Every structure is written in C-alpha cells, then in structure tokens.
C-alpha cells in the first residue's frame, strides 16, 4: 500500500517491567469526578458522569525516571494542572457492567489533564465545545503503565501533585464520585471501548496555574512517579 504522505507514528506508552509498549487508541476524560473539585469549579458534585476526548497525539509520553518537557501552549494565560489516575483498557467491549469492568483493564498510569482554563471557561460561558481548552497538543502527559495485576489495592491509593516541591493536589482514589467500574459502565454504554483506550478518571481539588520552569511531580501509590518541567 502507498500513502499520499507518511502516516503518523502510532503513539505508545511504556509498560513497567516489560519491553512491550501499549499502543494508544483514544483518550477519554471524565469531568468533575471529585466532589471538592466540582465545588471549586462552581458545581454541587451531584450529577451523572460526563466525558470529553483528547486526540491520542496530545499524549506526552514520559519514561520512568525521566523528567519530561511540557511545552507551554499558545493562547492562554491560565494553564492549569489536573493530576489524574489513568485507566488503560486492554480489551474491546460495550455495555460493560461495573462488576465486570476489571476484566477490561490492562493497567494504570499517572496522567495530567492539562487545561487552558481561560479558554475552557470562555467556551463554557458561550455554551460551546471545550476542545480549545482541553484537546490541544501536549495536553495529556502520561507516565508508564503498571499492570493491573501489580495494583490489587488501587482503589485505596493516594494521588498527589507537587509543583516545585510544594503539594498542590492530594486525595485518594476512594473519593472518586464515580469509581473506575462505574466509569467504564457509563463510558462503554456510549462508546465501544477498544484496546489502547486511555481513561483519565478525574482530578481532585487544588487545580491551579503553572508557569514556565515549574517542575511537576505526580504520584499515585504503587505507580512510578510522573515528572515533568514546563518549558
Ligand atoms: Mn480532568
């Protein structure tokens, strides 16, 4: 087969303790999935889960032990961090029940749902899509995926983000309004999940702006730290 130009490379994420990589398909994100974060965004926290997408080439893939570079995007004066647990899907499925969801999970990673908050807020006010605030290049940093079999207690994990050594966000996976199984149940009712799909599960309270030069370290118990610098 020949193409009119070279097709893009497949974006892939390293897998902890393996030479094989996880090829990315879609990047789904859950909105307002921690009560205290929903409140800081001006909502009550009681609503069905809702979803948005980022293109797979928005991933910034950072290897274990490396400090990745996160380019400061255009058009914003309010570039926000959102630390999130990312669920990596290993098997296709639709209409998956929450109790069966674990069968579809390949593993977990730490991710940042980076947001041009000023642009997102403008779009919200006008009732327009959020794409410009959420789905831009380099908006989805992600670290290596740890296999689910190595994380039997992920539902009790701590999640934390430090910026220049100071804790900005800290919570637990237990505080998700919609837990991982319920997210997969809702998401797979609307889209057929595919192996390679990544689900950013929602951020706890404490979202705030970063500037060029800031060093971000994301932590989730049992998963290698995510480290990057805004450039
Ligand atoms: Mn988010």
Protein topology:
Elements: E1 12-14, E2 21-23, E3 27-30, H1 35-40, E4 51-54, E5 59-61, E6 67-70, E7 79-80, E8 83-89, E9 105-112, E10 115-116, H2 117-126, H3 131-134, E11 140-142, E12 146-147, E13 158-163, E14 166-172, H4 180-190, E15 198-200, E16 215-220, E17 223-230
Parallel strand pairs: 3-15, 5-11, 6-17
Antiparallel strand pairs: 1-2, 3-4, 7-10, 8-9, 8-15, 9-12, 13-14, 13-16, 16-17
The structure holds manganese (II) ion.
The site of manganese (II) ion has 7 residues, from loops.
Quick structural summary:
This protein has 231 residues and is of the alpha+beta class.
Structure notes:
The model has no long low-confidence stretch (mean pLDDT 97). This protein has four helices and 17 strands. Strand 1 and strand 2 form a beta hairpin. The chain is globular. The protein has 231 residues and is α+β, with helices and mostly antiparallel strands.
Question: Which properties best describe this structure?
Answer:
231 residues; alpha+beta; Fumarylacetoacetate hydrolase, domain 2; 4 helices; binds manganese (II) ion
Low-confidence stretches: none
Overall spatial form: globular
- Helix and strand run: EEEHEEEEEEEHHEEEEHEEE
CATH class term: Alpha Beta
Under the CATH scheme, the architecture is Alpha-Beta Complex
**CATH homology-level superfamily:** Fumarylacetoacetase-like, C-terminal domain
Molecules bound to protein: manganese (II) ion
For the biggest β-sheet, the strand order reads 4-3-15-8-9-12
Question: Please, how many helices?
Answer: 4
Gyration radius from CA atoms, angstroms: 17 Å
Provide the structure class.
Answer: alpha+beta
Total individual domains: 1
Total count of strands: 17
Distance between the termini: 39 Å
